[in-house]
Every structure is written in C-alpha cells, then in structure tokens.
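Q&A log
Question type: sequence-to-structure
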Amino acid sequence: MSGTGTATGITLHAAAPGWSLDADVVVVGSGVAGLTVALRCAAAGERVTVVTKARLDDGSTRWAQGGIAAALGEGDTPEQHQADTLVAGAGLCDEEAVRILVTEGPDAVRRLIATGAQFDTAPGTGEILLTREGGHHRRRIAHAGGDATGAEISRALIDAVRAAGVPHAEGQGRIEFIENALVLDLLTDAAGRTAGVTLHVMGEGQRDGVGAVRAKAVVLATGGMGQVFSATTNPAVSTGDGVALALRAGAEVSDLEFVQFHPTVLFLGPDAEGQQPLVSEAVRGEGAYLVDANGVRFMQDQHELAELAPRDIVAKGIMRRMREQGTEHMYLDGRHFGAEKWENRFPTILAACRSNGVDPVTETIPVAPAAHYASGGVRTDLRGRTTVPGLYACGEVACTGVHGANRLASNSLLEGLVFAERIAGDITAHAEAAPGEPVIPDPSRLPLLSYETRYEIQRIMTRGAGVLRSADSLTQAATDLERIHDHAAEELERDGKTAEPCVETWEASNLSLVARVLVAAALRREETRGCHWREDRPDRDDAAWRRHLVVRLTPERTLAVHTTETEQF
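Response status: OK
Response body:
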C-alpha cells in the first residue's frame, strides 16, 4: 500500500523549526504500540526517538483496565478467537489481519511477559488467570493488578525503554525521549518520502518551542480521538493528532465513523465533560449484570450472551431502555461480589466509584455509554505502512482492518503489540536510503481555531454524532462544523488572521479536522452496522454497505470520500 498517497502541502500554522536532531526512526506516542516499536527497532540497531505529548506514562495504555485478549487458556484456540473477533466486527474485518492478530498474539504476549510485565496468576500453579469480556465465548483475557492491566504493561515497557536509553553493545541502537511535545506535521523530501516531523516542546529544557526530528521512518502511535466528544473515557491528550497529521500529509483514513461507545461508564451527571471513569467490561465478565431503576435485568432477551454481548449491542440495549423509561442512565449490579472481591479484583474501579460517592459493595453503579475507542483510523497494510512512503501507524490511531465495525473487547492492546512488532520488522528488514533534505512547501495552511472552539466542537459531536445518529442530526453537525471552519478560513484569507499558534489552538484544529471527517463518513454510511447506529437507517445492508469508507484531504483543503470493497482493503 505504501507509496500511493498524494502530498497536500497543508500544514498547521507554526513557527519555523528552531532546532533539529537526527534519528533513524521517530515514534510518536508512548503507549503499548509506540514503545514496542521503539524497543524492537533499537534492538535491531536503529537510533530511535520517542516523542510523547505529556510524560511517558500519560498515554491511553495505562488507563486500560480489563486486560489483553489472546488464546492462552486450555481448550482455547486462535481460530475461536478469530471467530469471536469477526462476529464483533459485523462483516467489515479484514480476515487476514484478524488471522495475523490471533495467531501471532499469544507469542507476542509471552514476549511482553519476558520484557517484564507481570500478569495475575493462580496461587500455587503460577498459571495466568483469565477472565471473559463481552463477545468472547471463552475466558481469554489476561489481566494485571486486578483491573490495572494497562498500568502494568505501561510500567514494564517504560522500564525497558529507559534501560535502552543508554548506549548498548555494538550493533544495538538507543532510544531517546522527548516528553511534553506535540507533533505538528510530517516532513517529506523532494521525492515525497518521509523525512521526519516537526514538533513543539512545551517548556522543557533547551529544546523549547518548535523543532524538527529528521528520520527515514515515522511511526504514528498517538492513540485515540475521544476528546472529540464531550464525555469520553480517553485522557485529555487524545485529540486525534495522529489522524489529523496523516490527513494533512496526504494519507488515507478509513472507517472513522465507527466510534465505540463503552456501555458502562460511571455516570457523573448529564453535564459531565472530559474524561469519565470507566467501569471495565471485566466486571460483567465476572458476573455483574445490568438492571434498570426497578432492578429488572434487560439484556437477557436481547442477545444470547446477555450482558456479555459485543459492546455495540450492550450500548444499544442500554440506550433503548433509557429511552423507554425516560432516564439518563442504567445500573450495574455487582453487590453479590462482596467486599473482598471488589477490593482484590477491581481495586481501581472500586476507588473511582467511592471517590464519586458510589460504593459498589452496597450499591448499584449508575452507568451510561460514553465515547471510548476508534475502530477506524489511518489506513495501513498488514505491516503498518500507510499510503505515504515511510509513514507507519499502529495502535488506536491506525485502521489495520482488525476491528471492522466494532472492536472486540481487549483486542486493542493485542493489536498494538502484534502490529508494532510487524512495523519494526518492516523498518529493520529494509535498508532504506536516508531521505533527502526536507522540503518545506509553500503551505496551504488550515486556519487555527481558538481554544474555546474545542468545547463547541465537542458539544456539536455529542449532539449529532454520538451513540444515536440520523441524517438530520449528522447534517446539522456537518453544517455547524463547516460554519466554524469556514469562518476561520475566511478570516485567514481576507485578513491573514488566525488564532495564535499554541498547543491549545493546534489541538482544537486537529479536533475540527477529525470531527469533519467522522461526520462526513457517518453521513455517507446509510445503514446501522456495529457501533455506527443510524436511527433513520436501522438495518444492516450488506448488499450496499459491506465496504469501507476511505477519506483523504485534498490539496484544495476539501475532503474526498470513496468506498472500497471489504476484500480490497
């Protein structure tokens, strides 16, 4: 796939780089995907620079509660894992990508353990404890610290990359870190090959301000875009920066309409905004169940797996019951667990609930769906290559084809591991010539939006492109988003004025671009499939819509949308 992109010449408004450094590989992001790429590339002798928006441990990985899915248990097989993944993906998974995930996954988890990750094990035997989550027919979710799996994986990988941050034996590379840095745009040479990135370091040491890292390969591992909605489980740094950068660079994105809304997020009130506490699916996997205000279970008649149905089905079940009863949330009942199980198996969730005035030991937990995971992203092939030569994408920012229309629970950490290793293998297997000097084109710059616009975009997206969508709601969202964009563009063209370049305005501008693409795709897909729920088109339509929507940004700053058959992905 690599090499089919079209350079746009579009960049963010920013100062010219005031400093630069050289590397072989730039990894943008410090979650499971990014750090795995960095470790594997450094072990093969590459000089790696890891750029992360906050601290190394501030990415999305550390918030993952439930665990990592792999066929590790007795009687389980990759084929069974594949079958569950394909069902959850609602007809849009790339079967070869899923086969790679489930067959390479178990050994990838074992290598993660060898790196230092410590999963929960059974007393006496030392066997990894496995649980179930929605959509899985077997117990195949490995967890750590009860419900702190992501934090443990993050700890192990950070320890490993810090150890690799010093010179090694001859033939090995090293890893350098740039923390508190927002990556702005891709650098390319005269032949259109990746030549590095520009970035802005936020008040950290001698590299303050805008700089550049020159490299032959750039790996986007920037995580998700949950902050495009008012309420999300994503951290504040998840503003779609990787997808926006890729679009400006001419790369294709795919399936952005498929945003998974996690069914059970702690309900903090109708006006709650920002990152919301997640109540892991593993709580239901251990036997908690959903009830309405009258204590009636309502998922049993909606799917054979009841509360453990795929996430889109559970989220829809909750929303239907809320609409029927005119309420703002449902309840999760785990009182039968008792205090000991809550304290030992789910200490993080217990603490989050209690800090917000709910005690799961004695009370039901108020829950409602909130934006959680982007199943789509920057379109890649099976080795993580995008349509721009030298640009790779991995983890939530990527669309590998694994997730289809709805991610199967706990496949995300595994996807990050497996495809990060494949990216590292591709980079190190090919002795690419160093790119030429970066070419700075006469930019067709997108207007920068004010910081306050971020909240307006979030409200527009929550109203029009949330769990429930329709032609009317999406059309209104598209109109409102274009109004914001057009007003800023007109000011730029007429008066040369734009918002002051800074982290807040760059983030708002990235969110605006991502939101426009998401809404354009959601409007085009006139059916209900997976986590894309159109009230006006309630049925799945395989004849017309068993295909992907691919979007790119044109040099004229417009969005080009086309479809591709599933088999051609």
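Response note: The longest helix spans residues 471-495.
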